[in-house]
Amino acid sequence: MFPCMKLRVLEELLQDVTDFTKPKINLEQYVTPPHLASHMLYTIQTQYGDIKDKSIADLGSGCGALTIGAAVLEAAFVIGFEIDPDAIDIYLDNIGDEDMLNADVICCDVRSIPSRFDKFFDTVIMNPPFGTKHNQGIDMQFLTRAFELSRGAVYSLHKTSTRKHVLKTAKLQGVVGEVIAELRYDLPASYKFHKKSSVDINVDLFRFEMN
Amino acid sequence: MKLLTHNMLTSKCMKGVNIGYPLKIKAVDLKESEVDFNPDFISRIIPKLDWNVLVSAASSIGKNENLPEDLLPEYEKNTEFLKRVHHVLLEVDVVNGELICPESGRKFPINNGIPNMILNEDEV
Ligand SMILES: C[S@@+](CC[C@H](N)C(=O)[O-])C[C@H]1O[C@@H](n2cnc3c(N)ncnc32)[C@H](O)[C@@H]1O
């Protein structure tokens, strides 16, 4: 077990992270809820020691739940990559005047992150767009780019219903992955065209090891 | 935007741009702050940097901290040196300004510390 702050403290901290105010459906903007984000980051640090003192990328960093969480867990440096300037404005509000200094966010498309960054990061963490409808395949594009950017490990959330596809995509890149946690995601109904105000879906937290 | 991030950014994705590196910095506002010093991390990150680009970027915004033109041998044992590199890489922030593509002259704005590298459709 690697050193880490208490799970409860981390979750409380992440509860203060403001969500997307006007989520853009086409970018699949939904926050990683505090409960989920804290469990994810806590597991990555305590089980694998992949956050503290590491350089970390957060792909599709949005309002910063994972970027802020990783910085709080004493990453050596975090870079968030996010395409939407409005989401980044919320991130800036979220960090406020706090001493959240070991992170940078770059406004860019994950698909055009410069190749100078290849193998630059020890760890990539992400909650990528699921790649629904008009966005098909974006989840796998995020994953493939993550494999190139990381020289240690990649952690990523995917719908359990796509598990086989995720593992196959990884295998094609010569990367071995495993599901390290099965979680429930309370997705706002807008993303499911559902009558209920929200709907639970099952998601897998994957860990991929780079070699 | 920290100089560590600047060292990695390019405008190569643009149509007609070959290398797009290094991006020139026009700094309007700078901020300096204190970040925990992690000598192992700094030693690990140095080989991934373009050292000359770091030195000239730091000089161009007046924060050179007497970094030598050539990387010192055995720098990983030199705590005083690593501290200066740490300061330049992580404690200096370009809050407002621009990054400028060396080939096309395209300007990428930096607002509130965030470089905006998004390209228009006709630029890719
Ligand atoms: C599911 S949200 C996760 C947000 C945040 N990481 C979190 O955990 O709360 C996915 C994020 O990816 C961003 N995104 C979608 N497509 C992108 C792209 N091509 N490049 C960069 N970011 C993108 C969206 O704007 C959104 O913020």
By DSSP, the count of extended strands of chain B is 4
Major sheet details of chain B: 4 strands, antiparallel
How many strands, what sense, and barrel or not for the largest sheet of chain A? Answer: 7 strands, mixed
Please give the order of strands in the largest beta sheet of chain B.
Answer: 1-2-3-4
What spatial form of chain A do the alpha-carbon principal axes imply?
A: globular
> What structural class should be given to the helix and strand makeup of chain A?
alpha/beta
Low-confidence residue ranges of chain B: none
Structural class of chain B: alpha+beta
Series of H and E elements of chain B:
HEHHHEEE
First and last CA, distance of chain A: 23 Å
According to CATH, the fold-level topology of chain B is N-terminal domain of TfIIb
Cofactors and ligands: S-adenosylmethionine
Report on the structure:
The complex is a heterodimer of chains A (211) and B (124). Chain A has helices spanning 7-15, 34-48, 65-72, 85-95, 138-149, 163-172, and strands at residues 55-59, 77-82, 103-107, 121-126, 150-159, 176-188, 198-209. Chain A is of the alpha/beta class. Chain A has one domain: Vaccinia Virus protein VP39 (Rossmann fold, 3-Layer(aba) Sandwich). In chain A, strand 2 (77-82), helix 4 (85-95) and strand 3 (103-107) form a beta-alpha-beta unit. The longest helix of chain A is centred in the N-terminal third of the chain and has 15 residues, at 34-48. Chain B has a single domain (3-118), classed as N-terminal domain of TfIIb. Chain B has four helices and four strands. The longest helix of chain B is centred in the C-terminal third of the chain and has 13 residues, at 79-91. Chain B is globular. The model of chain B has no long low-confidence stretch (mean pLDDT 96). The A-B interface holds A 53, 55, 74, 76-77, 79, 83, 85, 88, 92, 99, 101-102, 104-109, 112, 114-117, 120 and B 1-2, 4-5, 8-10, 12-13, 20-21, 33-36, 38, 40-41, 45, 48, 90-91, 112-119, 124. Bound molecules: S-adenosylmethionine (SAM). S-adenosylmethionine binds next to helix 3 and strand 2 of chain A.
